[in-house]
Amino acid sequence: MVEQAEIRVVHQGGSKITFREPVISSDSRFLLCASGHNVKVFSTATEECVQELRGHTDLVTGVLLRPSNHLQVYSCSADGTVRLWDFTDGILIKTYVIGYPICSIYASASHDGVVFIVMPTQRDKRSDVFQLVAVHLPQCADQLVETTDVSAVLGDVSSNPVAVAFGRSGEYLASAKGLQLEIYFFKKQKSYRFFLKEDHKNGGRNTFTCVACHPKDDCVATGHEDGKIRLWRNFNHKKEYTYSTLHWHHSAVSSLCFTPEGTNLLSGGVESVLVQWRYGQESQRDFLPRLGAAITNIAVSPDGALFCTSHSDNKITIIQSCVKVSSIIQGLVKGKFRLYVSTAN
After folding, report:
1. Is pLDDT above 50 for 146?
2. Are the C-beta atoms of residues 81 and 93 closer than 8 Å to each other?
3. Looking at residue 336, what is its pLDDT?
4. Nearby residues of 41 by Cβ (< 8 Å), 6 or more positions away
5. Where would one find coiled-coil regions in this protein (predicted)?
6. Dihedral through CA 139, CA 104, CA 215, CA 186, nearest 10?
């Protein structure tokens, strides 16, 4: 007689590694990415998974280097917590309980002890209205901390992490949603909003898809559904703003990223091509083609030595700053199979 028992899942593997933008460590030795309920840490040299940060009880929705400590990383999750890790040793340092599902996380060196998260305006995960809030992280010895010091920054923002970016070391942030670009200045505590028409005279689709801020200049780059990129300037005076337009992509721009010194702007989309635009000389471009699948995210290491691109086939490509592929980290992909049943006796 066989006794029946419930099956208990001890560890689940094979989750997507391209669900969110990956993070490259300050020394370019490690790549970190959200993967299901965990954060995976890969060696950029060997492509080996050297750590797996486990602790979240729901989908990890963001990974972020801690600005004040290059050996630590924040992760956020739909489980309503932000966790702080020592990622080289795989140690959970602290858990901050927010109480709302978290869609994405941001930080800047000029906002010490504060992280910014996007979460629903209601506790229900099905809520489709999101806000960006500042979370002041308590300084205490407890490992499990409930956070109560939360202040609203922007309402009605996109839940897509690539639609929010910080500019000029955290002096302002840019948020894009639909046909609106909103730029919020922290010192002034004032927002400026800019609107585009849904279609322009040549039939293009102006909907915003992603945003990136130049690290030194007052310049915001936005990607659009029709493949165009706009570079916005003079946006601290609502009536005097200007923008210039770049166009190479034939379909929606999925991700934009400036290099740390601001000398180049990287863009990607369904063409499986990484485009590098020379800032200030945008007619000069470099291309890295045939990357195998649509680009979903682009990230750059803090030292500028490495780029990486996430792809729709659950792959991350690590790229040297000279725009040459260095290595590839391939996650599991779904395959087709057939089941054959033998009828022979």
Report:
1. yes
2. no
3. 54
4. 30, 31, 32, 49, 50, 51, 52, 53, 87, 88, 90
5. none
6. -60
Does position 123 have pLDDT exceeding 70, yes or no? no
> DSSP string covering 83-117, please?
EEEETTTTEEEEEEE-SS---EEE--TTSTTEEEE
Sheet with 208-213: strands ordered across: 208-213, 220-224, 228-233, 242-247
Task: Indicate the SS3 state at residue 71.
Answer: coil
Pair 209, 253: CB distance under 8 Å: yes
Question: How far is the C-alpha of 233 from the C-alpha of 70, rounded, in Å?
Answer: 31
Instruction: Output the average pLDDT for the chain.
Output: 90
User: For residue 2, how many C-alpha atoms fall within 13 Å in the half-sphere facing its CB?
Assistant: 3
As a whole number of angstroms, the distance between CA 262 and CA 278 comes to 9
Taking only the tens place, the pLDDT of each residue in 177-224 is 999 999 999 999 999 999 998 876 565 689 999 999 999 999 999 999
For the chain, report the end-to-end CA distance as a whole number of angstroms.
28
* Residue indicated by tokens 């291309």: 287
As a whole number of Å, the CA-based R_g of the chain is 21
Q: 316, 302 in Cβ contact below 8 A?
A: no
Structure tokens at 156: 């009605």
Label residues 328-338 b or e (16+ Cβ within 10 Å = b): ebebeeeeeee
Question: What does the alpha-carbon distance between residue 183 and residue 164 come to, in Å, rounded to a whole number?
Answer: 10
